Write a sequence for this structure.
């Protein structure tokens, strides 16, 4: 079933519409059922958008969720994905996600850590999503990091978790702001 990943309002709505279409449920019925949850999700996201909007996010390849997460952060949180590293790029599975990425988002497939770290150092993004093995060294260099593993093991799908998903990205930025003197 071709669909966006159910991250945030847009992804969840698109995923539910695709599922409903696959079993013959009309779009207006789905819209009526999801209106309330979608509105609650919009409100939850509005709380985090001011902290995330305009911030640059960089994804090191780790979880295979980088492209859908970058789409969510760009569309619903106003972030700019500068580089999206993915271990493997399955263009068929991610076709709808790729089509929704903003222009200028650089997608890098594979793991050439040395060149990725060189580009990362040059770019100096506001937030770097990476594996645990890179987080502490990058933090020591002054970068703000988000552990990619949290995005795999934390419930982040659907309307009810949209705000929680945005908070996972806002939390390290808030921590950095509190530590700055």
């Amino acid at each position: 079933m071709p669909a966006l990943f159910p991250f945030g309002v847009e992804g969840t709505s698109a995923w539910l519409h695709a599922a409903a279409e696959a079993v013959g449920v009309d779009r207006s019925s789905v819209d009526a059922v999801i209106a309330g949850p979608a509105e609650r999700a919009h409100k939850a996201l509005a709380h985090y958008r001011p902290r995330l909007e305009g911030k640059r996010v960089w994804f090191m390849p780790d979880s295979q969720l980088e492209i859908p997460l970058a789409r969510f952060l760009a569309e619903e949180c106003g972030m700019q994905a500068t580089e999206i590293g993915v271990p493997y790029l399955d263009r068929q599975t991610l076709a709808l996600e790729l089509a929704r990425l903003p222009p200028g988002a650089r997608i890098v497939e594979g793991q050439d850590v040395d060149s990725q770290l060189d580009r990362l150092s040059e770019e100096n993004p506001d937030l770097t999503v990476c594996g645990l093995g890179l987080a502490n060294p990058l933090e020591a260099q002054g970068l703000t990091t988000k552990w990619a593993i949290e995005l795999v093991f934390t419930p982040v799908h659907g309307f009810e978790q949209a705000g929680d998903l945005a908070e996972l990205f806002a939390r390290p930025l808030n921590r950095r702001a509190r530590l700055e003197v």
